[in-house]
Design goal:
With about 350 residues, the protein is α+β, with helices and mostly antiparallel strands. The chain folds into two domains: about 220 residues, P-loop containing nucleotide triphosphate hydrolases (Rossmann fold), CATH 3.40.50.300; about 120 residues, OB fold (Dihydrolipoamide Acetyltransferase, E2P), CATH 2.40.50. Helices cover about 25% and strands about 35% of the residues. It is built from eight helices and 22 strands. The strands form five sheets. The protein has a seven-stranded antiparallel beta sheet with strand order 21-20-14-11-12-13-22. A six-stranded mixed beta sheet has the order 6-7-8-3-9-10, with helices on both faces. Helix 2 crosses helix 3, helix 2 runs parallel beside helix 4 and helix 3 crosses helix 4. It is elongated, with a radius of gyration of 25 Å. The chain starts with a strand and ends in a 6-residue tail after the last strand.
């Protein structure tokens, strides 16, 4: 196991700053997901750790050793790319054994290590097959085995399942998590899929425009997002601009207690925390569409100004398109100037329709 440290790492391509002063510490045996949209800098961070890109400034340390100027082949890292990058002229055994042969290990030791890692990734008995004889998921397991067989201190995964279908992605990410925990290897996993990050990581690093927006455990990132960007990127979130006056925030057909100074603010409410009641007010929000997912209903709500919100309710509530609604949030966050300024549960007595405050 190993400890990874990034100290103010920056990467510039000409006038463009792809990564801007990123600092991060990843502990022994920890699995950390770098999460963000395309262009957020997450893959560039991974490539700098692996030695495939050189930082413009800052340092990369592994177990306290500065590896910033070290080439990829000398770093104690193993990288699995989105493309499997398997050699088609070699069988599975040859692909996995290639790096060990470069190290001039004895033949018997190579065979022992390759067979052990094939068993680890669930491909025992597949050593004689060619890459074209494998499914996409099996090819990705071979790519993972090729990295693990070299016994790196740090495992780097760059969106390894992006080209696979959803069900296969879900199965493989669970397998990778199981393997990572069994081996105890320190791992960084790049993804733009929030479900992937929430399901397998010890911590999530949310990135935007080359900078880190938040680093926390998955449950904290979901329940306590620090910025509107994180709130909107992780899971579904209703974000509505409003105005605070006299300790109350009016936004999106809701009026809730907000103990902050008067002025503009943004209300954030998860769909699962937005309760609905039928309204007789002619200008009340309306159910634009109702989607039945079996386990729950997702109600697409249209406000008077055209803004759309979502509420998740039990199927038994039976909401229908066209119904007028009163919106009652149970848990909220309030943002101002890009940061959270208030968060908490909302008592039913503290929530009233905006119309009631005329």
């Amino acid at each position: 196991m190993a400890k990874l440290e990034l100290n103010d790492v920056t990467k510039q391509f000409g006038a463009t700053t792809a990564v801007d002063r990123v600092s991060l510490t990843v502990g022994d045996g920890e699995l950390v997901c770098l999460l963000g949209p395309s262009g957020s800098g997450k893959s560039t961070v991974l490539r700098m750790i692996g030695g495939f890109a050189t930082p413009t400034s800052g340092a990369v340390l592994i177990d306290g050793e500065d590896v910033t100027g070290m080439p990829p082949e000398r770093r104690p890292t193993g990288m699995v790319f989105q493309s499997h990058a398997l050699w088609s002229h070699m069988n599975v055994f040859g692909n996995i054994a290639f790096g060990l042969k470069l190290r001039r290990l004895p033949r018997a030791e190579i065979e022992r290590k390759v067979n052990a890692v094939l068993d680890l990734v669930g491909l025992e008995g597949y050593g004689g097959r060619r890459p074209h004889q494998l499914s996409g998921g099996q090819q990705q397991r071979v790519a993972l085995a090729r990295s693990l067989v070299l016994e790196p201190k740090i495992l780097l995964l760059d969106e390894p399942f992006a080209s696979l279908d959803q069900h296969l992605r879900e199965r493989l990410r669970e397998e990778v998590r199981d393997i990572q925990q069994r081996v105890g290897i320190t791992t960084l996993f790049v993804t733009h899929g929030q479900d992937e990050a929430l399901s397998i990581s010890d911590r999530i690093v949310v990135m935007r425009d080359g900078r880190v927006e938040q680093v926390d455990r998955p449950d904290i990132v979901y329940r306590q997002p620090r910025t509107p960007f994180v709130a909107g990127f992780i899971g579904q979130m209703n974000l509505v601009e409003g105005e605070v006056h006299g300790g109350r925030l009016a936004a999106g057909g809701m009026n809730v207690v907000a103990p902050i100074a008067d002025g503009p603010a943004m209300l954030a409410v998860r769909p699962e925390f937005l309760e609905l009641e039928e309204s007789r007010q002619p200008d009340a929000p309306v159910a634009h569409r109702v989607i039945d997912y079996g386990t729950h209903l997702m109600v697409d709500i249209e406000l008077k100004d055209g803004t759309r919100l979502k509420a998740m309710t039990a199927p038994a509530e039976g909401w229908k398109a066209g119904q007028r609604l009163t919106l009652k949030p149970r848990e909220i966050a309030v943002y101002r100037d890009g940061v959270v300024v208030h968060r908490g549960n909302v008592d039913a007595a503290d929530t009233t329709p905006v119309a009631a405050h005329g």
